[in-house]
Amino acid sequence: MRIANPIMSVPGAMQALLDLSAAAGKTGLDEDYVELICLRVSIMNGCGRCIEYHSDLLRKANVAEEKVSAVADWRDAPHYTEAEKAGFALAEEMTHVHVSDDVWNEVAKHYSEEQLAGLVIAIGAINLWNRMNVATEQQVA
Predict the structure, then answer these.
(1) E strand intervals along 12-107
(2) Per-residue pLDDT tens over the stretch 55-106
(3) DSSP 3-state of 85
């Protein structure tokens, strides 16, 4: 670990990020699906702490093990709906900081504008968590 977790070290930072995530959750998105998105992004970013955290949350919520374990290979897994796959594509492209019109148009077919905003916020928030944890070498608990 390079420094203490920044989110815990800066007054108000933890609550601000929790509030941001909570706002995304008020858009009608399925909570378990948002956790799957967080898991997928965390795998992409190599954030072991977040991979463990979101995997544990999904298992505690009794999400089917097939959905949890196949999230890294969502394109070929039969466990996800077209809407879920569209959201995973958005998460991947946002994480790479470029969202194509094709991906945006596909995800927009499945979600309302408010839900799309929630997805974008949730994906942005998990990327922030991942980047802080990876940069400061936070360890898996």
Answers:
(1) none
(2) 999 999 999 999 999 999 999 999 999 999 999 999 999 999 999 999 999 9
(3) helix
Contact 1, 113 (CB under 8 A): no
| Residue extents of the structural domains in the chain | 31-135
User: What whole-number distance in Å separates Cα of residue 103 and Cα of residue 17?
Assistant: 27
Contact 122, 37 (CB under 8 A): yes
Please give the CATH superfamily to which domain 31-135 belongs. AhpD-like (1.20.1290.10)
**Does residue 27 contact residue 18 with C-beta atoms inside 8 Å?**
no
Looking at residue 111, what DSSP letter applies? Answer: S
Two tokens, residue 60: 């505690």
What SS3 class is residue 121? helix
